[in-house]
Amino acid sequence: MKRPVLIVGLLICAGFLTSLEARNSKNLSKTTNIDLSTTKKVFVGWVDLPADQWHIWGYGSRSDWQQVIDDLNQDFQNDCQNRYLDGMVVRVAKNRNDNNAADSDLAIAFSDIHIDNKTYGISLSIHFLDPKTGAEITVVPPHLYYERRVFRFQAYLRKALQDVGMRIQVEATGSPKQ
Question: Which residue among 50, 62, 109, 130 is buried most deeply as judged by most CB within 10 Å?
């Protein structure tokens, strides 16, 4: 009796894992029609999480929350430089006001940024811009990244930014690299 129950349980788990893999692979397909794979120099902007919402997320002050935002951006930008946009020359914004994309072939900017109260995922739009003309090349419309809960708030945000980085990688290079 125990053996059939165990087998059924394992099959259910396997089916659940397969559905999760299908969701992730669907999420990693290119959503825009523009080929950005020949881009050599990229400027990655600041993910300007709302600093005035420090009290909602349980921080003692705006400056404490701003430090978390700064740390998250630095980690995200390092990942863009070393992992997601590997092989490209990547410059990053130093702070929320830095949008100097001079000498870049492509600028990546973010808008419509907010943190979901239920999942702690980050919703944002990703804009791919021609820095020489300021024209928008293409945009990934607002999407909620990382809709799963873990046990630490900053871990949610960090994982959401990793998902954003993978989206940028797919759009800029044409394929995900693991």
Answer: 109
Q: How far apart are CA 49 and CA 58, in angstroms?
A: 15
- How far lies 85's CA from each of 38, 74, 100, 164, in Å? 12, 15, 19, 12
Q: Is residue 15 part of a domain?
A: no
Tell me whether residue 23 is in a domain.
no
Range of the domain at 105: 31-173
Tens of pLDDT along the chain (178 residues) come to 655 544 554 445 444 443 333 333 345 677 888 888 889 999 999 999 998 988 888 889 999 999 999 999 999 999 999 999 988 999 999 999 999 998 999 999 999 999 988 888 899 999 999 999 999 999 999 989 876 655 567 787 888 899 999 999 988 888 776 5
